[in-house]
Amino acid sequence: MRIHYRLIHPIHLDAAFEAKGLTVLLGRSGQGKTSLLRAIAGLLQASGEPYAGLPPQRRPIGYVPQSFSLFPHLSVWRNIAFSLSEHRRDEAMRLLESLGIGQLAEKWPSELSGGQQQRVALARALARKPELLLLDEPTSALDPITRDDVLDTLRHVVSETQVTILAVTHDREAARAADRLVILSEGQIVQEGPPSFLASSPATLEIARLMGVAFAAEN
Fold it and tell me: DSSP secondary-structure letter at 214?
């Protein structure tokens, strides 16, 4: 999926890149990663492709913000059923089971751990049957073991549903787990490709630092 979006406010940004499988957008804080996600979702005024001109509710997108935004007054399965029009409980339970959290169906969001809330938010986003799933810092508040479990879940989602996932982060481990890595700096994409390629051949010193590898002089 080719993505190209241009923003003026709240940050000047012109980002064009290819998203495939689990794609991670990596960059320092303040580079506009979250603003780009919100623009793609139709929540910020911007121009670009795909989905330009469509209101947010008509875009085939699932969006999971960093806060997860679960409804505190609804049980887990009802949070997911909120996005469904028919067979609501059966479909909600199917999604929960597919993510290995069927046992949480009757719990309240306040009773869940961070990793559990992340999976419930994923299930609710997937209930829309999106073409593109947008995730804002999906591993930032998780301990290393839970982070690895969530990354495994994301790979499972890609394999089972064929949905494209675009996750923004500054987490190097999440970046290494991606199928495709895209680097955002100073309002534009400066390098993209498989994580192994960017780690071995970073185009700039900044990319090498983001990847957490030594920068070879010949690069």
Answer: P
pLDDT of residue 218: 42
Alpha-carbon distance of 99 to 77, in angstroms, equals 13
| Beta pairing partners, 26 | 169, 183
- What are the residue boundaries of the structural domains of the chain, listed by start? 1-60+130-219, 71-129
Which CATH number applies to 1-60+130-219? 3.40.50.300
At residue 123, the 3 state secondary structure works out as helix
3-state secondary structure of 154: helix
Sheet harboring 61-64: ordered strands across? 61-64, 132-136, 164-169, 22-26, 180-185, 188-193
Residue range 60-79, pLDDT digits in tens: 999 999 888 899 999 999 99
pLDDT at 213: 64
* Average pLDDT value for residue range 137-156: 86
Which 3-state string (H, E, C) describes 173-202?
A: HHHHCCCEEEEEECCEEEEEECHHHHHHCC
- The string of pLDDT tens digits covering residues 179-202 is 999 999 989 999 999 999 998 899
From the list 192, 179, 182, the residue with the least C-alpha distance to 151 is: 179
